[in-house]
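1st attempt posting a full record on here, be nice pls
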Amino acid sequence: MRDIMQTITIGVVSVSDRASQGIYEDEGIPHLKAWLTSAIQNPIIFHERLIADEQAEIEATLTALVDHEACDLILTTGGTGPTKRDVTPDATLAIADKEMPGFGEQMRQVSLYFVPTAILSRQVAVIRNETLIVNLPGRPRAIEETLAGVKDSEGKVVVNGIFSAIPYCLDLIGAAYIEVNESIATAFRPKKK
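the predicted structure (as tokens):
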């Protein structure tokens, strides 16, 4: 029998040259932590990292969060566009065991509901060992939209957010079992026979 309220370890990584240099305050990590704390019922241990848009630094950070901190889930924010400095997806793919392309496809689908430039995003998701790593957009509002999805004025889901698939993905790879606050997000798991 599993302990359904086990502690989950989550890495939150903000990739930004200017925020990492103190030019402006990072909004990604606080927003991610607030949303995750409201959506997940389990106790959470967060490992926070604010780093520059440097591929080697991103690779080293993600590797350390998986291999040394034993994160179940890592969410990055920023660095997913087409500019020369946007290398978060490249770094994420470089340290991956498996790519999970459905997450990137769905993130762009959610974002396309709001802006046509969503097709410029290169967000990816991968598995390394027993950890799911997902590259989210950089803006706090876009982070929430991507995770929670799009709802109409009556609260009905129009486009599913990616968080609905994260708990089951973690189940499948042997990571911690997430209990979800259904008023914030849904988790789709197959019904047991």
